[in-house]
């Protein structure tokens, strides 16, 4: 039975949010994950721009279906993964680029998890809401389109 009210409501990223997010990951390499990947648009764009492997974690089965359909339609079937996994239970120690468009209530416990698991050279890009206790390395956009990049090595300092 599905919960009636998911912990994090789904809001698709705008084209500008997607562009800003990927701009803050430009030139980077390594495994890229989107925590709460929704319909998969950020993972799809990350893969298109050469960030590989690219995968999304999403609990909503309808959004997973939509994400897989979009990947198939774009010709990336089998190249991008969307996994039905709880982001609190996945190990992120091999992730170098993490995309997070999640509600503010999730940010403090998630910050603890990211600091405990991510490698020093990882970069976290947050959309819609910044991490309240972290200082961003850079930011891009205004209002709802604003995104924040955090370099884990800097955050740990």
Automatic annotation (TrEMBL):
The keyword Amino-acid biosynthesis does not apply. Keywords: Methyltransferase, S-adenosyl-L-methionine, Transferase. One of its GO terms (molecular function) is protein-lysine N-methyltransferase activity. One of its GO terms (biological process) is methylation. It comes from the Eukaryota. GO terms for cellular component: mitochondrion. Belongs to the ANT/ATPSC lysine N-methyltransferase family. PANTHER family: ADENINE NUCLEOTIDE TRANSLOCASE LYSINE N-METHYLTRANSFERASE (PTHR13610:SF5), METHYLTRANSFERASE DOMAIN-CONTAINING PROTEIN (PTHR13610). This is F173A methyltransferase. It comes from Motacilla alba (White wagtail). The lineage of its organism: Eukaryota, Metazoa, Chordata, Craniata, Vertebrata.
């Amino acid at each position: 039975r599905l919960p009636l009210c998911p912990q994090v409501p789904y809001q698709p990223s705008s084209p500008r949010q997607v562009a800003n997010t990927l701009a803050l990951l430009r030139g980077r390499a390594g495994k890229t994950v989107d925590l709460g990947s929704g319909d998969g648009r950020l993972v799809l764009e990350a893969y298109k721009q050469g960030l590989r492997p690219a995968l999304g974690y999403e609990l909503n089965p309808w959004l997973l279906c939509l994400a897989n359909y979009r990947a198939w339609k774009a010709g990336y079937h089998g190249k991008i993964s969307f996994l039905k996994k709880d982001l609190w239970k996945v190990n992120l120690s091999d992730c170098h680029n993490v995309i997070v468009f999640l509600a503010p209530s999730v940010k403090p416990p998630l910050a603890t998890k990211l600091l405990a698991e991510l490698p020093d050279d990882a970069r976290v890009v947050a959309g819609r809401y910044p991490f309240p206790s972290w200082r961003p390395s850079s930011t891009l956009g205004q209002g709802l389109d604003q995104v924040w990049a955090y370099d884990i090595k800097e955050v740990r300092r």
